[in-house]
Amino acid sequence: MPDPDDRPPSRSTASVFRNAQGHTAEGAGPPSAGRALVILPLLPTLPEPEGGAARSPDARLAEAIALAQAIHLEVPHAEAVRVARPDPATLFGRGTAERIGGMVEAFQADLVVIDHALSPVQQRNLERQCMAKVIDRTGLILEIFGDRARTREGQLQVELAALTYQRSRLVRSWTHLERQRGGFGFLGGPGESQLELDRRLIAERIIRLKSDLEEVRRTRKLHRSARQRGGTPMVALVGYTNAGKSTLFNRLSGAGVAAEDMLFATLDPTVRRITLSSGKPVALSDTVGFVSDLPTQLVAAFRATLEEVQAADLILHVRDVSHPDAAAQKADVDSVLADLGIDAANDPRVVEVLNKTDQMPATARGALHMRLANQRMTEGEEHAVAVSALTGEGLDDLLELLDRRLSAGRQVLELSVTLADGRVLAWLYEHGQVLDRRDEDGQAHLHVALAPADAARFESRFAGQESR
Predict the structure, then answer these.
(1) Highest mean pLDDT (candidates 69-83, 143-157, 250-264)
(2) What range(s) does the Hflx-type G domain occupy (predicted)?
(3) Model pTM score
């Protein structure tokens, strides 16, 4: 078979990628980024599904297709391929690699997505065998993140992850694609700029990115400290991608965060202030969605963002309970939380928000509500609440649960404050719950519920300005 360098393709993937950016789009709707084959290797080391805790091959393949479609790739063919013995050269073995190459030609594909990690050697050999660009699961997820990042922080984090991944893949195997282009280069070939980069330059860029992200971490830490000093608790939303976090975030906060039925529709973290029924202000944080086999480069690069989860007063694990692989998705999120030092099963801050109940059959929805009611009766405490962020069902229950959890251990103080001292009264209303108030003789007599930390802050800031 001729070397791919000697055979220019009929349609370069560099121009294909530009279509994804909308430069050559025609008609309405997102333009196609090209045609991609999606191949899921089924390796013998992977556990077989049992008890619903592991994903079925069909579900894993469906997710791989959805990942490709998230950057507007057209998928004319996808299949799972059993690999009895992984080949160090191509992962699949010569016969399967040749068959994939035949499918590339038959389906006129521009790209082959392998839903598994590939070594640089395997990726290069498959490209030569298939006569098409090949990316693995990590490369695809990084490409999605590179396409979605909008804020400077998000772009820094994605670039760091991409360069860490790309550093071992500086090869010159696709010289017919040498042309200048943006992005990270996974879909469009190496490009002129990538081929000119060597490991030393990438290492220097990584050092600069880490320095910039350290500044982001310091800034976020200062913001968290300011919120803590002001007595504003943080509630962080986490969950599998497309579980409905952004829809829930918009419902609770009134924000306009993009919420689409698409994997990784939201990438850049957002924080909004909401007020609970008790008057308690809360900072609500929407975070990037998790996914199975989340690239370690991303977990490391997004440390500044994920620290918001670590420091949160409450962590809402938003789950799509209508999904057939809900149990496996929960296990994946719990695994990422464990990497952050959070034991989801035992950490009292974690509350499960069982979302998309509107998409469940009526019998299953009834059984879910019955199970949660029994749990409340036997344990005396709620660890989960069923909601539909789309219809608003169950959101009042969720807000009441937040109020109870954040108010746990509050102290009720009996205070008398001069009516003219509006600063003290405003502070009490902002940070506590005024249970009772009676105004007479120029004094406001109040019963105020305060968290222990807020009670201590009140004592230190306003000592002598009120009477018990």
Answers:
(1) 69-83
(2) 233-410
(3) 0.73
In this structure, what DSSP letter does residue 240 have?
Answer: B
Paired strand residues for 449: 412, 433
d(CA 73, CA 227): 42
CA distance 223 to 244: 26
| In the predicted structure, residue 18 carries a pLDDT above the cut 70 | no
Domains of the chain (ranges; CATH) run: 4-149 (3.40.50.11060), 232-407 (3.40.50.300), 411-467 (3.30.70)
φ, ψ for residue 415 (rounded to 5)? -130, 150
Distance CA 191, CA 201 (A): 16
Q: Own/partner pairs for 269-276, CB < 8 Å, 24+ apart?
A: 269/153, 269/154, 269/305, 269/308, 271/308, 273/232, 276/399, 276/402, 276/403, 276/406
CA distance 456 to 352: 31
The residues, ordered by sequence, that sit 6+ positions from 431 with a Cβ below 8 Å of its Cβ are 230, 231, 280, 281, 450, 454, 457, 458
* 249 within 8 A of 265, measured Cβ to Cβ: no
At 180, list the tokens. 């200048």
Q: What backbone phi and psi angles, to 5 degrees, belong to 437?
A: -145, 135
pLDDT at residue 322, as a whole number: 94
Q: How far apart are CA 324 and CA 370, in angstroms?
A: 20
Cα(328)–Cα(320) distance, integer angstroms: 11
Q: What is the percentage of the chain residues whose pLDDT exceeds 70? A: 78
Hey, which residues does 91 pair with through a beta bridge?
87
Task: Compare 287 and 77 and report the one with higher pLDDT.
Answer: 77
Measured over the CA atoms of residue 293, residue 296, residue 298 and residue 300, the dihedral's sign is: positive
| Token pair 């209303």: residue | 429
Sign, CA torsion 420/424/428/430: positive
> What DSSP element (H or E) covers 438?
strand 433-440
| In contact, 399 and 277? CB cutoff 8 Å | yes
